[in-house]
Amino acid sequence: MNPVTRRIAARDGLVLNALDWPGDEGRTPLLCLTGILRTAHDYDRFAERHAGKRRVVALDYMGHGESARAADIARYRPERAVNDVLDACAALHLPRAVVVGTSFGGIMAMILSVLRPTLLRGVVLNDIGPVIDPRGLSQVGGFAGNDPGFPGIDEAVAYLRTVMPRIPLADEEAWRHFAGLTYARGEDGLLHPRWDTRIAEAMEAGAAPPDLGPVFRGLRPVPAMLVWGEESEFLAADTVRAMVREKPDLELVTLPGAGHAPTLEEPELVGPVDDFLDRIP
Q1: Is 181 within 8 Å of 164 (Cβ atoms)?
Q2: Model confidence over 154-200: pLDDT tens digits?
Q3: Which whole-number Å values give the CA distances from 110 to 14, 116, 128, 246, in the listed order?
Q4: Which of 111, 168, 214, 224 is the most buried (most CB within 10 A)?
Q5: Distance (Å) of CA 120 to CA 26, 98, 226, 273
Q6: Where are the domains of the chain?
Q7: Cα separation of the two ends of the chain
Q8: Which of 103, 81, 102, 94 is nearest to 121 (CA)?
Q9: Which residue has better confidence, 206 or 257?
């Protein structure tokens, strides 16, 4: 089932891109929010599993994928991204949703639990929590502003294997697919990032990561699952244990040996994640 491409305007007029897979309108839609520097197409295969059963929407953040690039890099601050998610929900008629948030998308879900608690019918936090491991911030900071201009997919794969070696990709074909979601061929014939590399400047200009404990506590009344890559560079074991103490009904699924972030296509995850989602009307 192919998605419909939606072009919507944020409150300041910046055009956002979303992919919209149709499904049973009587069930709560899934709103899929990606990690930073990723695009809505990361959820293509995930959406194929759920489309038809319920509507699935995946969003390109500002400066990512097919969404517009901002003139002012301050537009790329995380608080602006939250507003964009809310604007997208209004434009796409999503008064309630189950949010599936990978990394940065999970942070968005936690913040939404405070800003718009009536929106959330359920949440899947994919390898993220209220405390972000400095290793992850260092990793993404060095990657975000880099545009090597690869001549082909093989060179892109070789580079990605060095900068994110623990991402749980099964084989060479999976790495090539991931690289194809990360880079697109430009007018010069080379492969370039699918994001505005000036996002790195916005990250450097920002303050230290905020304490997300209060917004995580906003999830207390919401059915929630945490997917954890056991070797994650973003989510430490101590944080996972604290999250389970804070929210005893949090459903935890661990992927041994995996770094940041699971794709949600791993065989060990498909059953538990889909079962959790299927239990939400």
Answers
A1: no
A2: 999 999 999 998 999 999 999 999 999 999 999 999 999 999 999 99
A3: 24, 10, 10, 14
A4: 224
A5: 16, 6, 15, 17
A6: 4-144+211-278
A7: 22
A8: 94
A9: 257
**Chain segment 210-261, per-residue pLDDT in tens:** 789 999 999 999 999 999 999 999 999 999 999 999 999 999 999 999 999 9
Query: Residues 6 or more apart from 219 whose CB is under 8 A from it?
Result: 109, 110, 113, 120, 123, 247
**Mean pLDDT computed over every residue of the chain:** 95
Question: How distant, in Å, are the alpha carbons of 42, 83, 195 from that of 71?
Answer: 26, 17, 14
pLDDT band at 206 (very low <50, low <70, confident <90, very high): low
Written as one letter, the residue type at 62 is M
* 265 secondary structure, DSSP code: -
In the Cβ-directed half-sphere of 99, how many Cα atoms lie within 13 Å? Answer: 33
DSSP reduced 3-state for 32 = strand
What pTM was estimated for this model as a whole?
0.96
CB count, 10 Å around CB of 146?
Answer: 11
d(CA 21, CA 24): 10
Which CATH code of 3.40.50.1820, 3.40.50.410, 3.40.50.720, 3.90.1570.10 fits the domain covering 4-144+211-278? Answer: 3.40.50.1820
Which structure tokens are listed for 209? 């990561």
